[in-house]
Amino acid sequence: MAMLEEKQELVFGLDIGTRSIVGTVGYKDGNRFKILAQRIKEHETRAMIDGQIHDIVKVGESIRAVKELLERDLDTKLTGVCIAAAGRVLRTVTTSVEYTYGMDKELTTEDIYALDTMGVEKAYEEFSKTNDTEMQFYCVGYTAMRYYLNGYVIGNLEGHKAKSVGVDLIATFLPDDVVDGLYKAVEIAGLHVVNLTLEPIAAITVAIPEKFRMLNLALVDVGAGTSDISITKEGTITAYGMLPIAGDSLTDQIVQHCLVDFETAEMIKRQAGEKDTVEYLDIIGLPQTITSAEVMELLKPSIESMTKQVAQIIRDLNGDKPVSAVFVVGGGGMIPGYTEMLAQELGLVKERVAIRGQEVMQTIDFEVPEARKDSLMVTPIGICLSYYEMSNNFIFVTFNDQRVKLYDNGKLSVVDAAIAAGFSNESLFPKRGKGIVYNVNGKSRMARGLQGEAAVITVDGNEADIHTKVINGSKVVVTPSTEGEPVHVELGSLPELKEQMSIKVSGKDISLPKTAYVGGQIQVPSYVIQDGDDIEIANWYTVEQAAALLDMVLTEDIQILVNGVPALKDTKVFDTFTLDFQKKEKAQTLDELLEEDVAKEMAKASQPAPAPEPEPVKKPETPVAVESQPMPSAFVSATLGSIVVMVNGRPVTMTGKKAYVYVDVFDYIDFNLKESKGRSIVCEINNRPADYMEYLKDGDVISIYWREI
Hints:
By secondary structure, this protein is an alpha+beta fold. The chain has twelve helices and 41 strands. The strands form eleven sheets. It has a five-stranded mixed sheet with strand order 14-13-12-17-18, sandwiched between helices. A hairpin with a 2-residue loop joins strand 4 (about 50) and strand 5 (about 50-55). It is elongated, with a radius of gyration of 47 Å.
């Protein structure tokens, strides 16, 4: 710890407040902190307002004065100092992020760090959207409040297998000019900053030890310009807040009421809590007196307004509900009536809102005569103690030739420098190539691209990774990660297409590969699946497709049978079906058959005969509507003939030919052979299966319909 050459164990803490500067010097001995010197100096002018430095030179001169007094007390040269930034300029963002891997993944430290950085990036994006100032802000740190494994809260993600992870995270930001103002004021005093913390963190270090942070508590640090608020529960600090109203707003009221300058009004405010009557000179120079009761009555409305606003911020930070208790520190909180009014606004008993001073300094030893031990000293002592816990400071790092400022929490690494430089988190980690999402038989599938190459990182010329530590002056060079090749999936790689269907062709078992349709069009196995493709795996072939695979040509003289039933070229053949091909019988004796039929008809006509009883008609499973053809009224030529047959229960007159075969019926009825829809056609004559080339005679009963397979 390079702070003092003679006594390196000493820590110099400086609380640069709106009304005063408090310097404390001490050292840690085991678990106790020993204070060797303590000095307080008020600003001679209003060089600071609401916790913000307005006159850097005057503040620097006041710091120098405090430093010189301490050096004289200790007979030691002071060169380094610990400071704190006021809560007025602290901005916090609480956010949540979730990441899904798509498959079980064993989590590593790198995965957790990547998740945290996603959260910090999201917090910065959200903060940037709401930041209505032109100031440049830096992320000064973050706290992972809780992690989630597959949607459930878990203490530590490392080593677990997860499909999804998440984190609730609080990130804190400070503007660059505020930090630079503090640094410059310190430099004017001949000091350099060895540690910087936040005032709410410094105060809570002393006022609420870690063992009490499981409780839902609030700490209110009421200074001169701001009221800083912190919330604890479940073992951690969960939120920070700030109200730009504090002790100075009360002093301003006394200025107006008593017609005095600010310093005189501050004296009246302090003595009103100690004396019954306060004497003072007004701006004319006339002596005046005011009672403490009159001062309290004057300030009561402002205290009520202030505590109402503080109570509302506590509720907002605590999920719209009050805390269990409130600890108050800082000089502004000592004004009479403050704690009672705050308790009333929060709906707490007055004992649950208390000023914290010497009673929380059980591990502090004051080796200074007449040392001040009240609530005003909580934050200055916390600034000293934060050195041991955090060792925070701003450092400068060069990242890809860009100079960036980092808030040093003792754990800075390459990824922190990348975030500060605005380097994309995606460019640190290998990126997968473009993936695709497609459907197979109505179910969605995803294929991911190949993994790219990780970023190439060096720190000061040495090979490094995202976890490599960086210090002040480090030079970081990062070559962005690359994106992998896009996914390449061929249709033939689908497991469904590696299966085969089996049919029996002319008594022999034949195995056929399954086919695939993409967007309704059949595709070859080498087809590359595209994003959004709709794929249907067919478990059937048409007769014509099956014949082509078997190198068969379907000519007009070939009759097709599917499962023993006559079929067409576009009839579908499914797994385990039978398929037969037969030569149709040629009608070489057609004239002889016609002559024989004519002779029979003439014989029937020459002798009376009883009318034949109609044959029973088998009702089709799916009847087909048939339009009856009217019996011709004109004379039919002797060379032609006409017959009447019953088709699906309705008479059909066939005329214009010498003879008729079964397939001629389709010329007289409305039956679309292309609407099979996976069904098989049933053709019957006189209650038995029909042959398509079978000759018809007058009175035949015909049934034609579709049968579900």
